[in-house]
Amino acid sequence: MQKPVQQDMKKVYRKLFWLIPGPLFYVLFLLSSLWPDLTETVYSRGIFVFINQGLSTVTGLLPFSLAEVLLYIFLLFVVVSVILMAVRSAAAGKSWWLALLNRFLTLLCVFSLVYTLFAGLWGFNYSRNTLGETLGLDTSTATVDELYATCEALIERANDLRDSVPEDESGLFSPGFSKQDMMENITYYYSMAANATGHGFLGGSYGRAKPVLYSTGLSYANITG
Questions:
Q1: Got the DSSP string for 26-85?
Q2: At residue 205, does pLDDT exceed 80?
């Protein structure tokens, strides 16, 4: 009985190594928030550009959102791991605590690696300068009169442009292109708008945009964009 316990303890020690990346990247994330200008220059406009465009181009070949599918797989993994944790602990007899610890560490290792990938591939952008600061916008609180004047100006502009909007035989808006056409060309027009406004760093070469399978659930989870 002693040998299996020793083997399990060796597994526990090996798994402790895989816990290191998560806390390490969390510390780096905290440090990045202290120097947003450095994060903006080095990561967001440097390292992240190559990471994002590379991943976007490769995953853009898929007809579905890879990130969404991976999210569902991860949630399923957590549920299955919790069930296996309970089953194996109950079957381990007197060494139930070791079996529980082993499975729990496995789950923590996965969390650690997932967080590391999230932070390294995208998450450091939370510490960059705000978009308002980057574009030089006035982000101070607007007054009621300013909001009212803005709405009036937008209404007048919309009315002026109404005659140029394509319509169908019923007088309803008809864009002349399908949703699929829009999804396939949105990155092109996004880059074109970025260059036209003088903010070329917002553009780039990316894979095509794709709708998600369960947008309602992701919206409740505050995952949008």
A1: HHHHHHHHH-HHHIIIIIIIIIHHHHHHHHHHHHTTSSS-HHHHHHHHHHHHHHHHHHHH
A2: no
